[in-house]
Amino acid sequence: MADLILHDVGLRDGLQIERSVVPTATKVAWAAQLITSGIDMIQLGSFVHREKVPQMADTDEVFAVFRGAPVPPVLTGLVLNEKGLERALACGVSYVCMGVSASETHSTKNTGMTIAEAQQRIVATALAAKAAGASVQVSVQSAFGCGFEGEVPEARVLDIVRRFVDAGLHVVSLADTAGHATPDRVERLFTAVRAIDPAVECACHFHDTYGLGLANCAAAMRVGVKYYEAAFAGIGGCPFTKVSAGNVCTDDLLHMWHRMGLRTDIAIAPILAVSQGAADVLGRPLPGHVYKTGPLS
Amino acid sequence: MADLILHDVGLRDGLQIERSVVPTATKVAWAAQLITSGIDMIQLGSFVHREKVPQMADTDEVFAVFRGAPVPPVLTGLVLNEKGLERALACGVSYVCMGVSASETHSTKNTGMTIAEAQQRIVATALAAKAAGASVQVSVQSAFGCGFEGEVPEARVLDIVRRFVDAGLHVVSLADTAGHATPDRVERLFTAVRAIDPAVECACHFHDTYGLGLANCAAAMRVGVKYYEAAFAGIGGCPFTKVSAGNVCTDDLLHMWHRMGLRTDIAIAPILAVSQGAADVLGRPLPGHVYKTGPLS
């Protein structure tokens, strides 16, 4: 397996906060284009309450289209609880992602549970997923700061990671939900995570709120982070606020890698086509750079 | 002097390619606001042919307003040749910037001279500036690639730097005119420059064409680069093309530094005010992030 793994989460973390609901056929078309790029992993959606998150209501249908498709890419789904896991397993999802927030406020607002309650539940759900034969990635959300609380103590993040590792969960993502991370913190925190257990495989998930997304990815690369979550065109910014909080842009990240001679086996053109398609469908310029400029050869 | 020096070049490299000419009074107001931030250096304009670059036609007037102002900040001006230097010295400019392109095509289009001709002329002009008592920064433009030629050999960049150093010019900037740099190249090339002579003080000047501006600044910080050129609001993108090629955003870079505990003596609020003012005057959203989101405390 490659040293750097690219995981597009645009269909989930990008679309879930869009004002409009993107039609299932469009999602399927975008996923199909992403697949042709040779990207490693694609998150097709999340198994959440259909009425609470109508943008994700068709996740089961989208998975059904690709059921039994040859791999790679690995098609992943986000689950929040046991019910979501049941649906994911019924859809044949082989790789599930789930997480716990390191911010009490964020945890309560997002899940109605304290960090301790959420962690207990997520560990149980993750172990159930493994028992059912799925691969599992567990994440710590708000790992670099919280939009509500501000600073999040690194010790608290590491406590959550330790609990995951103790439970035998070894693919651990640190998610910068609010975009507060800086390169020095990224290096420090991932180094600390890897010191807990060298067998841990690290994933990162940055938002570009303050323009630091790619700088943080470059920092993560220095300290051996393997999995990079990003969204085509850098979607994910909330259209209702002034704060543009899109994900790291998959295409821009891959373009950086290509310029560094890395992962040139993944084709950028199909990803750029999805980004342009998303800008057309969503009806506004999206944050990504390279889909506008074209890539350097 | 601080380890990291912030040099805003928005009034020059930002405004010189704007369709509209910003009134002198507005430039003066923006410069005055930047001064109140405690920023280290501000480039007020360039001493170029007034008819060829009407956006810079009032550079002498802008300098006249601030003549004799207490320092810091250092007020800098760009010169292209002997005539420009004469004007700069007549304006009392104490710190002049000048450069040579490492791309033959870029050099010819920009100056009508080959690299060799341009270098001879710039070295002579730089030595004249020093003899007149000014401080001098010499730069290599297109140091990381060229929009016309693509790859620029690192050996050619280092040859130009060596010539500068041999002439006794020790403040050397590498300018990524086209935005082609990546963090690995930044570290490699600046390390090679410093190996030529440890007395060299390095400056960097990145454009954010492909979203890599802050990642490249973070890389430069790792290898001891001291001077950081950036433009308020990340202006500098050409409004006539699809390619958004703005400078690194001064406010976003300072925000990253503040989050890293660095240069907290420079106030960000006045810079954000200039960025918002520029967006209002130029009549469009500008590339910077933090002037839109507000800074993290």
Q: On the 0-100 scale, what is the average pLDDT of chain A? A: 94
Which assembly state applies to the chains in this document? homodimer
Largest interface: A-B, 34 and 34 residues
- Per CATH, the superfamily of chain A is Aldolase class I
Residue stretches of chain A low in confidence (pLDDT < 50, at least 5 long) are none
Strand order of the largest sheet of chain A: 1-2-3-4-5-6-7-8
Q: What's the number of extended β-strand segments of chain A?
A: 8
CATH topology assignment of chain A? TIM Barrel
The end-to-end span of chain A amounts to: 25 Å
Structural class designation of chain A = alpha/beta
The percentage helix of chain A is 40-55%
Count the domains of chain A: 1
Shape of chain A: globular
Q: What order do the SSEs of chain A take from the amino end to the carboxyl end, as H and E? A: EHHEHEHEHHEHEHEHEHHH
Written account of the structure:
The structure is a homodimer of 297-residue chains. The first copy, chain A, has one domain: Aldolase class I (TIM Barrel), CATH 3.20.20. The longest helix of chain A is centred in the middle third of the chain and has 17 residues, at 115-131. Chain A is built from twelve helices and eight strands. Chain A has helices at 10-14, 24-36, 59-66, 82-90, 104-111, 115-131, 154-166, 183-196, 213-222, 250-259, 269-282, 290-293, and strands at residues 5-8, 41-47, 74-79, 95-101, 135-141, 171-176, 201-206, 227-230. The model of chain A has no long low-confidence stretch (mean pLDDT 94). In chain A, helix 2 (24-36) packs antiparallel against helix 11, helix 7 (154-166) packs parallel to helix 8 (183-196) and helix 8 runs parallel beside helix 9 (213-222). The two termini of chain A are 25 Å apart. Chain A has an eight-stranded parallel beta barrel, surrounded by nine helices. Chain A is globular, with a radius of gyration of 17 Å. Chain A is α/β, with parallel strands linked by helices and 297 residues long. The interface between A and B is medium-sized, with 34 and 34 residues.
